[in-house]
């Protein structure tokens, strides 16, 4: 029988720990962490993500600021706003919610964020620090996965781990983290050009799926006793839901779960951990 990796519960535990830390800071007269978010336009999913982040700040006792801009804002205007954030000593860390409108270069904006306030861990300096094994901000989703593995005492040392997906913000940082000293996994990264993906997956003690293809990984691709972490979150139309959609992971839970020792569900697995990791990064930014 598999054990469910409950990201909702673990995330609640982390938030509880964070609110204790905030109480202690307050009692010592120390300024509490302050997270800001820049939201451009009114994309539905982005609105939800940002409002969840603001809500999490409020619950924990962090200060939060939400700056909203119309989708017509120019790149140079947005760069000015980013610069203001960099120079605002009241703000410890901030995020620029992606995606940005197509007339704005996400790369240029990310590179303009001060690496010391880049709590999303997207800046090339922070990615470089990760590769070099130096302290820096680690992107929230990979960090959340590592936190789940640790808190569930899943042994990674010597384990064969296959990361499906090589994106700069998810698959690639995760593969680096898992192979670092301390985690010590033997990591294989697979992507859309990988030949015979199934045979690679069948060798894996740990599978981490981050490809964005609903229910792609089926039971016959997973060996008995494997640990499966599902990062995928794709909105799939579902008329029975009030929202009109449901979130679907990259793993076909029905056929995969019974083969696993541990499995994380979607929703309720990695998703809630992302916000908790962002809050951990903000506390770290404040303590610096
Ligand atoms: P992405 O940038 O689109 O990258 C997807 C990766 O998967 C690429 O490397 C791609 O290969 C690979 N891939 C696609 N189809 C494949 C296939 N059939 N076989 C093997 N590899 C395949 O996506 P992402 O930003 O990393 O996100 C991945 C998923 O995680 C999405 O569903 C996203 O919504 C979700 N996500 C969730 C959270 C959360 O908080 N839960 C956070 C971030 C992302 P190529 O490089 O060859 O194209």
Helix/strand layout:
Elements: E1 3-4, H1 7-27, E2 34-40, H2 44-60, E3 63-69, H3 75-87, E4 93-96, H4 106-112, H5 124-132, H6 140-151, E5 160-164, H7 171-179, E6 186-190, H8 197-201, E7 206-209, E8 226-230, E9 234-237, E10 245-248, H9 253-256, E11 260-263, H10 270-287
Parallel strand pairs: 1-11, 2-3, 2-4, 5-6, 5-7, 7-8, 8-11
Antiparallel strand pairs: 9-10
Bound molecules: NADP nicotinamide-adenine-dinucleotide phosphate (NAP).
NADP nicotinamide-adenine-dinucleotide phosphate binds at residues 141, 164-167, 169-171, 190-194, 197, 210-213, 231-234, 270-271, 274.
How many distinct beta strands? 11
Class derived from helix and strand content: alpha/beta
Q: Share of helix among residues?
A: 25-40%
Overall structural domain count: 2
Largest sheet, spatial ordering of strands: 1-11-8-7-5-6
CATH classification, class level of the largest domain: Alpha Beta
Major sheet attributes:
6 strands, parallel
List the helices and strands in order.
EHEHEHEHHHEHEHEEEEHEH
Structure commentary:
The termini are far apart. The chain folds into 2 domains: 29-114, Leucine Dehydrogenase, chain A, domain 1 (Rossmann fold, 3-Layer(aba) Sandwich), CATH 3.40.50; 140-271, Rossmann fold (3-Layer(aba) Sandwich), CATH 3.40.50.720. The protein has 10 helices and 11 strands. With 288 residues, the chain is α/β, with parallel strands linked by helices. The relative contact order is 0.16. Helix 6 packs across helix 7. It binds NADP nicotinamide-adenine-dinucleotide phosphate. The site of NADP nicotinamide-adenine-dinucleotide phosphate has 25 residues, from helix 10.
């Amino acid at each position: 029988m598999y054990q469910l990796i409950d990201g909702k519960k673990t995330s609640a535990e982390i938030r509880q720990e964070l609110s204790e830390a905030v109480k202690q800071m307050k009692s010592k007269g120390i300024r509490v962490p302050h997270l800001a978010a820049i939201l451009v336009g009114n994309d539905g999913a982005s609105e939800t993500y940002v409002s969840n982040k603001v809500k999490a700040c409020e619950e924990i006792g962090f200060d939060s600021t939400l700056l909203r801009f119309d989708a017509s804002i120019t790149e140079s205007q947005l760069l000015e706003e980013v610069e203001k954030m960099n120079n605002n000593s009241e703000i410890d860390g901030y995020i620029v919610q992606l995606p940005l409108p197509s007339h704005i270069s996400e790369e240029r904006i990310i590179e303009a964020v001060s690496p010391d306030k880049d709590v999303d861990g997207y800046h090339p300096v922070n990615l470089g620090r990760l590769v070099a094994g130096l302290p820096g901000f680690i992107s929230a989703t990979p960090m959340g996965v590592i936190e789940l593995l640790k808190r569930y005492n899943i042994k990674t040392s010597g384990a064969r781990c296959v990361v499906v997906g090589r994106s700069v913000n998810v698959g690639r940082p995760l593969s680096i983290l898992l192979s670092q000293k301390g985690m010590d996994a033997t990591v294989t990264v697979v992507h859309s050009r990988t030949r015979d993906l199934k045979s690679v997956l069948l060798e894996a003690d740990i599978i981490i799926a981050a490809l964005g293809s609903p229910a792609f990984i089926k039971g016959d691709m997973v060996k008995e006793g494997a640990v499966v972490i599902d990062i995928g979150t794709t909105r799939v139309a579902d008329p029975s839901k009030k929202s009109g959609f449901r979130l679907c992971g990259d793993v076909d839970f029905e056929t995969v779960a019974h083969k696993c020792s541990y499995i994380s569900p979607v929703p309720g697995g990695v998703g809630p951990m992302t916000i908790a990791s962002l809050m951990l990064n903000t506390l770290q930014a404040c303590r610096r």
